[in-house]
Structure formats: structure tokens, C-alpha cells
Amino acid sequence: MLNASPIRSYNLFGETAELADVLHVETISARSALHDWRLKAHRHARLHQLLFMTKGGGVAEIDGKQHPLPAPCFVNIPRGVVHGFDFKPQTNGWVITLTSDLLDHFLLESEGVRTPLEQPLVLPLNTDLRRLAEQLSEEYHSQSFARAQLLRSLAGALTALVARSIFEVDRANAPTQGNPLFARFEDMIERDFRKRRPLADYACDLAISPTHLNRIAHQSTGQAASKLINDRMLREARRMLIYTNLTAAQIAYDLGFSDPAHFSRVFAKGTGVAPKIFRQQVTGAK
Prior knowledge:
Strand order of the largest sheet: 1-8-3-6-9
CATH architecture of the largest domain: Sandwich
CATH superfamily of the largest domain: Regulatory protein AraC
CATH class of the largest domain: Mainly Beta
Radius of gyration: 20 Å
Number of helices: 12
Number of domains: 2
Oligomer: single chain
Structural class: alpha+beta
Strand content: 15-25%
Largest sheet: 5 strands, antiparallel
Order of helices and strands: EHEEEEEEEHHEHHHHHHHHH
Helix content: 40-55%
């Protein structure tokens, strides 16, 4: 069912206060059992979540697509990604929530670890990850000396292992390592994709030519820089068509288009269908 307002963006499952701790850890059952084992689609603007399922199963909805959750598995949910869960009763494991500030503290752009972590996906849970997630949970619920420092260290190790697991599955991330210009370009796209900025503006901000920026984008992803910008806009458009009841015209204006008809043409070219047809196919709306 379509929401009557833009996609809900929560700090932590609907809570409005910022995280009071350096991170947050709770069991899957602690929260989901209160909601009949279902967590409606939402997103977190400045939180990165890692779900480690050790028992049970269910389905994750990530950006409008259904992903089975065969235990044991883990789910990587970067900030801003729309997600929801429908768990089997008695499913358990841990949900570990990290602030963007904490990630920025121990993820250096030059090391290439951030790129795998920006991929929302479900992967098998190996023994090392499970052991580390359990250790972090135990430390989180303790009141031992140097707790905060140890939590930050464990969180750094955990995200590194998650990134390694993703990297090993998706070798396409390898070329992006060690390219700080491409990392800055990705950050700029995330910040400005609603502004409809031309590629030349991005290149100017990076103090390089559009040709050089395209070369970097091709080396990193195999795609043109302009396509990466357009794809980010299309991803947000699909989210809004699925999770809100805003009209195509309203979505067009929100995404920086001055002409809704132009937005419809760009959307149809990028997805193969017009916005209205896409919404009907995905949500069953009339």
C-alpha cells in the first residue's frame, strides 16, 4: 500500500532521538516481536545497519525488491536505503546500528572499504562474522571499563569483515580501491543528485576535466559518469513511486526537473516504462 507522505526516515526504528551511545545493538526478536515480526519499509538518513540472523528466516524488502533470508545470513543496509522485514516467528540474531559519524571515523577513503559497504545485500553469515557480532553484543550490554573504546574497535573490525565478505562476492569493486577522486565523486552525487547538475560542474568541483572524470568512472565501474548520476536519480524516483503516493509531477519537481514531461521521458528511457506504469506494475495501483 502506498504511503500518504514521503518515505519515512527514522533514526532507529521510528525513534526520534539521536543514538545516545556510540552504536546500538539489540536482538532481532526484541523489536520485531513487538510488531508481529514485521517491520514496515523505512530508511535511516544517517545510520548504517547490519543484521546478523542466526536462527529463523523471512524476507527482506530492500528498495522495493524481495530478498529471502535463509539463516544463517547477514544483511547490509547502508544509510538512505529503504528496507523492511517480514520475519518468521522466533527468528533471532542481532541488529547492529552504526552512526555515519562513527563510520567516517574509521573508514579512510584511500583504503577502499567504504565502496563495498554501500551495497545493500544479503549474504551467508560465516563463523568469524557471527563470533564478532556476538562479542560486540556482549560488550554492548556490559558496563566494563573502556567499554566505548572497545565497542568502536569491535565495530571497526566488524565492518571490515562485512566489507571483505561483500568484496569477495563482488570482485567488480576491486578497481575502485585507492581512487579518492572517484570516492569524492560518489559523495557529490549523493549530495547533489536532486539538483540536476551537469557533468561539467562535478568535474569542475573535482578540478579535473569531464573527460578525465569519465575515465575515472569507467575504470571504477565500467560506466560513464553521467550514467552514474542519472542512475542515482532513477533509484530515488523508483523509491518514491513505490513507497509514496506523490504524483509523478511532484516527484519530478522533488528531483530537480522543471518539466514533469521531461522527467517521464528520462524515467522511461532509464527503466523501460513510464512512471505511472512502473507504479502499477510494482504496487498494483490503478
